[in-house]
Amino acid sequence: MSELFISTETLAAELGQPGLVMLDARPAMGFLMSHIPGAINVDWKAFSDQRAASKGILHPDRAVLEQKIGALGIGSDSRVVCYSDPLSCYGEDGRFYWMLTYLGHPNVAILDGGWTKWQLEKRPIERGPATSPTPAHFTASPRPEVIINREELKRRIAARDGVAVIDARSPGEYQGQGMGRGGHVPGAVNIPWNAFYNADGSIKPPEAITAALARQGVGGKGEYVVYCAGGVRCSWLFALMKRAGVANIKNYVGSWADWSSDPSAPVEK
Q: 30: domain range?
């Protein structure tokens, strides 16, 4: 297991250590019922641009993002572990992993198996609201190589420059069901985000994702773009691909909500 994903055993041994910040990305009600001791409940939409067609698009003011992240107790030298419930959520832990990675945080990991595996193993839990974290100072250093916007993706598709576009939604959504204009980005292949879980919520070996890429004809070296409906599921797939050693991935966080809102953006079915 690469450092991008950590085991429940490793996290259990690190509980209470200085500098550790655990982000529980589940809905607030589930968090109040029980959570990993010391975790903080977070909502990915709190970091979004509320004026955008897609909530996947981050708030455009870097200072606002720095303040919100620092308020969680996350400093540039913190160790951050994100988790969710793999079998009932949508990869929100992956969304926080991608966001913090994009903003330049050097030490972010996802809990393999998340809340599902933690509970199955009967590890320690807390109930009720979290203790308010001590604010920290976080300075963002955005990494443009892990993000792409609609206009750049339109240009690259029109230029046929070889970028491999991956749709992380369900097969039904890919084929035309769901929000906005039905269909998918031209040339995109479908690799559903939730195809790589074991029964306990842990993830399958890296070879599973590389095999899925190969089956779709987009394996090997090259540049990839991932998207979904609103920027969450594709962030999870981004993390899985990184774990599998895929180096050059851009996340289209505006995703289908943003793409389908533009009448000039081409659609395939």
A: 5-120
| CA distance linking residue 269 with residue 218, whole number of Å | 19
How many domains, the chain?
2
Q: Are residues 111 and 60 in the same domain?
A: yes
- Asked, for residue 130, whether it belongs to a domain, the answer is no
Check: pTM over 0.85? Answer yes or no: yes
Residue 160 burial by CB count (10 A; 0-12/13-18/19+): exposed, middle or buried? exposed
Q: Is 129 left (phi over 0), alpha (psi -120 to 50) or beta?
A: beta
In a 10 Å sphere around its CB, with 0-12 CB exposed, 13-18 middle and 19+ buried, how is residue 15 labelled?
Answer: middle
Q: pLDDT tens digits, residue range 185-238?
A: 999 999 999 999 999 999 999 999 999 999 999 988 789 999 999 999 999 999
Beta bridge partners, 22, equal: 81
- Look at residue 252 and tell me if it is in a domain: yes
Q: Are 203 and 264 in contact (CB under 8 A)?
A: no
